[in-house]
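Input chain follows. Return structure tokens only.
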Amino acid sequence: MRYHKAPDETIRRLPSYLRGLALLLDQGYKSISSQGLADFIGINPWQIRKDFSYFGGFGTRGVGYDIEKLVKQIKKILRLDVVHKAALVGVGNLGLAVLAYPGFGVYGFEVAAAFDVSPQKVGRKVHNVAIEGVSELGTLRKRGIDIAIIAVPREAAQQTVDELVKAGVRGILNFSPCYITVPKKLKVITIDIAMDFARLPYYMPRQAGA
């Protein structure tokens, strides 16, 4: 089910709620109030209530939220109630870190395939994923993989994306530091670590005399 009226900022916050709720379940909590969840993840309780209001009433007045039930509801909203297999393109230092990252499983993602242009890397197995040549990208559709992560150099990014589009990919997480163009039906989320880092000093208090 798609929720047209939910703003993008709300959708961006839902994974934060999901991660916090998963941690609370691990700690043995069964239910929690919006204030308790707000204190735990560092978001205002009114914001949590407003975000959830886009999708109907989740909590019970005077009781709060049933955590296990709320986790299932958020996963359904984000379409994380099924396992999504993803392909990684680019197995350099950043790509290796992506393969080693254990957090994808919390959200139902599995990096099921990895690709690189280097003959020295093709055929190796990293974290139980065999590295394949980029010439095999065309096999993604028949393997049921429609999400990709790209961690290739800037100059290779657009060509990589074009190949992924041909292979039937519908969503891309882009770690390459550049703008890429895709068909309107395809969703791209770009993460530029350096650009986000560049925002940090603005929020830091100035030193005396600076």
